[in-house]
Amino acid sequence: MNRLKVSLILCLALLSTAYAQNWEKKLEEQEKRIEAKTKAQQERVDLRFANQLKRIWLRSDLKEGEPLPKIIEPENPRVFDPKKDKKEEEVRLRILPTEEEFTPKSKDEKPTLRIAPVEEVEEEIVIETKEEVKEEINFLGAQANTSYFGSSVNFRYDPDMRFSLNGRITEYKIGEAWERLEKTEYQPLLYQITKEARRMRLNDWGFCLLINAASKKIYPSDKNAQTIFNWFILSKSGYISTVSYEKDRVFLLVPSKQVMYGKTYLKGKTHKLYAVDFDGNDPKVRAAKVFSHKYPETDKVLDLSINETPRLGNATQRKVLSFKYEGQDYKIPVEVNKNVIDFYENYPFLDLNWYMRTPLSPEARRSMVSSLKEIMQELEPQKNRRTKEEEQVHFLLRFVQNAFAYKTDDQQFGGEKYLFADETLYYPYSDCEDRSVLFSYLVREIVGLEVVGLMYPGHAATAVKFNRNVPGDYITYRGKKFTICDPTYVNATYGMIIPDVRGSAAKVVDFSR
User: Fold this and answer.
1) pLDDT tens digit sequence for 469-485
2) What element of type H or E holds 18?
3) Which among 90, 232, 440, 504 is placed 20 to 30 Å from 16, CA to CA?
4) With b meaning 16 or more CB within 10 Å and e meaning fewer, what string describes 117-151?
5) pLDDT digits (tens, 9 = 90+) for 160-203
């Protein structure tokens, strides 16, 4: 079976399966790219690209990674004391001018597409594979068995894909490695990787980590060969990417729709190309030779947003969060999948809005969110001063303020680290931006109100759009009134923010757009 026919069968085999994390579209794009060329045309394109690899390189200086947006916080949280702290008159707080969510695009760059969240499906997804495809995969002579965050993943691949890239690197060696991979039956392996990514509902970064897991099994002690393989598979999947080298190391460079803080980058015409290492070791490349072309017809840029939690192996850990509200003790059960926490551990450092728009895992929703919803359904407005929704927001505010122990990122991690909501539930401590991420999720998920984040010098908080005019400090954003809710100002009500930042202008973190 020739490669073109195999490729078409491999792609068509998945088209009838359920849509998940946009993988259907990715497979359709693979089909279209293959259908657009005859086998002979494709071979000419690949040969020309391999020849370019051996000669078209530029010496380039890479730039220092953008510094992490560090929040210098106090070592202890501020606690509101009604006997000592005077409640100020209601004030409309200042905000900084609104910025666009993404940096302006050049006329050659395609606009960013928003991907709608995928409905959560509890039952296992079964992907049917045509017998011809199974036979083609089984015909491959080598096997790689790996673990991906608690999930067992098995691949079969062409043993001719193995090569070595040790010693001093040259353009010719890199070109030969690419040419070798081109001549193998790589399409069945690409099919298997893509299928597993769909099954586990991986986003683009998760897809990269899965490719890397395969590369480590195929080239167990050859970091450069792993990098070339990762680049090859990403390119064949339609992602813009390239490589650079310096002396005996090869580095992968990829663009991203999001800013990846702290990562060395090369400024391209339309994108920043970040030097990435999928093992979590950020390469600090200063000057290197860079291959100045991308693989033909690659047009996708990595999107690091997370629309649903990846479906990883089960490693549930349980805890109970305790707090007091209006004189009554509450205990909230929480379940967190440790494999999800491991997935997030070395995630690129992004702007806060991406953490705020990331949903909780199914485990955390089934345990904590379900328990909170049940309790909050029974809540009655206290002292006739609040509506039902205001009472519910006040309850959630007390929960986040009091059920979590406080430490700064420097104290807990030795450096700045924004946490996804699941991570805040897992780690023993959290700080202001972590609590803001969790609180904003809970208000949206349980109460159904609009929320924005607020970034101050040295502090992070949130603001909620209530359905009536409520007392307290507020901001006006896009013509709407949002009342301050500070998840780290312990025992403060909505409409109050720590006095230290009350006179400062806040940057609005709008994660709904």
Assistant:
1) 999 999 999 999 999 99
2) none
3) 232
4) eeeeeeeeeeeeeeeebeebbeebeeebebebbeb
5) 999 999 889 999 999 999 999 999 999 899 999 999 999 999 99
- Which 3 state secondary structure label does DSSP give 339? helix
Least Cα distance to 186 among 124, 220, 232 occurs for 232
Pairing label, strands 450-456, 459-465: antiparallel
* Per-residue pLDDT, 282: 84
Bridge partner residues of 254 (DSSP): 274
**Average pLDDT of 214-237?**
96
Residues 6+ apart with CB under 8 A from 481: 465, 469, 474, 475
**CA 20/CA 93 separation, integer angstroms:** 42
CB 63 within 8 A of CB 472: no
Q: Tokens in use for 339? A: 């494999």
The model's pTM is 0.85
Half-sphere exposure of 190 (CA within 13 A, CB side): 28
* Tokens linked to 181: 């991979």
| C-beta atoms surrounding 456 within 10 Å | 19
DSSP letter at 368? I
Q: Tokens 């990883």, residue? A: 312
> Per residue in 406-426, pLDDT tens?
999 999 999 999 999 999 999
Of 22-26, 164-168, 217-221, 291-295, where does mean pLDDT reach its minimum? 22-26
3 — pLDDT class (breaks 50, 70, 90): low
Q: Compute how many other C-beta atoms are within 10 angstroms of the C-beta atom of residue 497.
A: 27
What is the residue-averaged pLDDT of the chain?
A: 86
- Which stretches within 403-464 are classed as H helix? 409-413, 421-426, 432-442
Indicate the burial class of 28 (C-beta count within 10 angstroms; 0-12, 13-18, 19 or more): middle
Task: Give me the DSSP letters along 41-97.
Answer: HHHHHHHHHHHHHTT-EEEEEPBPPPPP------SS--B--TTTSPPPPP-B--BPP
